[in-house]
Amino acid sequence: MAYIEIENLKYRYPRTDRLALDGITLKIEKGSFLGIIGKNGSGKSTLASAIIGLVPQFYKGAYGGSVRIDGLDAAKVPVTELARKVGLVFQNPFNQLSGAKDKVYDEVCFGMQNFAIAPDEMARRADDILKRLGIYEFRDRNPFDLSGGQMQRVAIASILVLNPDVIILDEPTSQLDPAGSEEVFRVVEKLRESGITVIMIEQKIDKIADYSDSILLLDDGRMIAYGSPSEVLSMDGIESHGVLPPAVTRISRKLSIRKPDGYLPVNIEEAGPLMKGRIAFRDISDKSRSTGPEMLRAEDLFFHYREGLDVLKGVNLSFDARPTAIIGQNGAGKTTLAKLMKGLLKPSSGKILFKGKDTAGATAASLAPSIGYVFQNPDDQIFKPRVIDEVMFGPLNIGMAAEKAKEKASAALHMVKLDNAMNRNPYDLDLHERKMVALASVIAMEPDVIILDEPTIAQDDRGKDMIRGIIKELHKNGMLVISILHDMDLVALSFDRVIVMAHGQVIKDGSPREVFSDSQALMEAGLELPHVASLARALGDDGIKLSEEEFLSSCTFTG
Amino acid sequence: MEGKNIFRTKFDVASIVLIPACIGINYIGKLFASALKLPLWLDSIGTCLGACLGGPIIGGICGAANNLIYGLTTGDSITLIYALTSLFIGFFVGIMARAGFMKSFPKSLLTALVAGGVAIVISTPLNIVFWGGQTGNVWGDAVFAASQAASLPLWLSSLFDEIIVDVPDKIITLILTFIILKALPDKLTALYDADDEVERLD
Amino acid sequence: MKSISLYRDNGTWLCRVHPFTKLMYIAAAILCPPILGSLWAYAAAIVVDIIILVSAKSLKRAKNLIIFSFTIILTIFIIKGLFDAENATPAFAIGPAVFYKEGLMKALRTGAVIINMLLSFSILVLTSKPEDIADEMERHGFSPRLSYVISSVFSIIPQMMGTMDTITDAQRSRGMETEGSLGKRMKAFIPLITPVVTSSLINTRERAIALEVRGFGGKGKRSYLRTWQKHRGDKAMTISLAILIILASIWRVIVWLI
After folding, report:
1. What CATH number is given to the structural domain containing B70?
2. Which of A218, A237, B51, B190 could disulfide-link B93, Cβ–Cβ 3.0 to 4.6 Å?
3. What is the ipTM of this complex?
4. Would you say residue A336 has pLDDT above 80?
5. Residue B40 — φ and ψ, nearest 5°?
6. What CA–CA distance (Å, rounded) separates B172 from B164?
């Protein structure tokens, strides 16, 4: 008998009429690594919840079929009992902390106390796991003071000390920056080597392809495919289920490169031997040049939160109509720069000019008609019980008439494809949709400049695609789009100008190709190449290929 | 929910986690009110929300725990005495909510009056016993002084004092509670539904 | 993260005294004076409070806690002194305002109750960590759910306060003014408080899940990471304080009987 046996599982959340899971049948062997993929809302998290019994015990609703964990019925055996066998780590690092402990060490021991594990055994396990996950040095820190990646590792440690047979990772990096994600993936790799059964839900398809023994693709609560990574990711029409295979797989398909077993390669290790030496690249070059009049200007900008600790050290920038990405590690000063431009902070010296006028005397509120700012977390602004009212809030604040505000709000919601959610409660929508509501609520004010802070966090491939379309459309309407980004693929595809920041200064400014060609600057800012570019690089290209199309049009493959 | 036992309470983890959140909300309400320099306390929004979501028992616990925790840890030990008032506010708002009196705006005003009434009935004797009848609020105490000067009985002066202080506050508090409740998603409110059972699909 | 707790470990003896011993002291300090009934008993209690606070180098911080009560106490003196129903014996007059002895004595008693209460509680509040109090309660048979509620209040509030700043920025970015007339500020209240309240309530759902999967909902036996060894002095103090309360009560009963 397999360790986990799922038999025709069906489930519906309370007060809804759609099946979130519909006829799932699955066996998971001990020691295997299962990746679950699918677009947002396809039932991935619901399946994870069902394996640990939260569905139906915690969520209630309607349930059919069965889930057996090591012979135990997950619908009946209390979650706290199942937790001895199955551990769960989910997206939001904050909410996974018990909230009752003010030291990392105590936090990690919280679960063991509930299971009455003897104090010396508790100490032994905690020390061991903390060291293995590289967070031993934080053991006396307040877990809430840690970075997202560190916090998420604490959450994983808190589960591992319970010695479960299975650990479920439900998009553990979806709310982290790249550095934090890397920290967590390094841990995932260790887990994989340790032989524990891992079930990982993840949007970062390259990681899933690398780690998994098998992949399950869900759409609309149903199993679409289940098999080895190559088998599932080679499937024809996989994009129609909202999943974009890794760049290497997409390009291999176009070039008709297949492995001996007939499937497409899913990572560079597999593709290398098939492509190396048989592919040649032509160089593409371009230069970023300014277009149109200057919209926004930063002159010799300095800023500090605490005297003597300058966060910005003399930034000089001039923005025209080109969509501009600002990239760099956390702490480089990107958000501070954005907040200064929006008027949420005031420079300690230097000035900011909007269309030639100094904004020193203007409040953030009075700048709202000119400069919009979309915050990272939509829940920091949503307060109306209807989506349309939420989106109309800004336009009404800046003095638009109700009629016009409604018109602009509807247009903005149309742009983010939430037309039919207009009368719903925003908090009944999923996080990725709420992010779109927040975006629409700023677009509706029709500012001249719109600043987006990490717009692609929590979005699946479809959502990222939509954001690319929105950036293009806003640019076409004459709006200056500035975005703080960690997603290098989006930087490569959607922006004409890229500004690289490190330690409070601009270290590189140019077209995406110019920036990604400057390996010195990338290293200094701790940044990586976009997936397509790094594939081309691995195959011997010395230039930069920004997109799949560029890759294909500039290479010659001798098959 | 109506028609069933009004006092039915779930004591699962979800309800336990609700309590500190509500106590935190009370604190934030008070903080915002003073940051915006509003002439109100607004320090029982969380208790009222807890009562509306979790029922009278959870509401009562939120109220009492609120004052006990702040009293015992933030040095505002005077708050301790009013744990009793908070407990009953939470309890009665919970009853009103379960009886359907938070469903519409006019009905929620009625709940506000009940909460104000409860505050007056419980706090006035406490004020008399501990502070000789005052509330410590400038406006309320001015009325207290005036009615004492007019030789009204102590309990009546104290009652006036309390009415001035608590009734407007409770009205605004429950209006805010009503607005916030409206904004809460079904996903969340379903969690505290004490009567939900799992339905079988096969 | 900035805590709302006033506890500081300043290394003095009082920080090492068990919180239950301090609770016993509070009980004695608050109960004995009214049982004995004399104003001198209040004075004695206040003096003991102050001696303890001085020896623990915490009087200055305690002062910050009680200073707000002075205005209330002052108004009590004025109102009682001028208007109390039992006023009969004039004590002194300021201009046309005549203060009476009876009212002033009542105010003095009320003031003593307030000061004694604030001071004795400050002994616990300033020198015991709330999480320690919660842990000790749990170890002595109180429900782990209760101690969870206490501890988590202290982590939830700083989190909410952090969110509050972001929310203020987000709403200002959408053109909402937070300063100006009372009407404007009132209107700003809902857009500011609703997101923090809603998201903290919504977060409870995930928090509950996080606790469930770590076995918090279970009813079985639990274990503890560390145990607070009570000092010999803790026991002696607790017993002496209990005896003090009993003696005061006996004295009261005897006085009644005679």
Report:
1. 1.10.1760.20
2. B51
3. 0.90
4. yes
5. -140, 165
6. 13
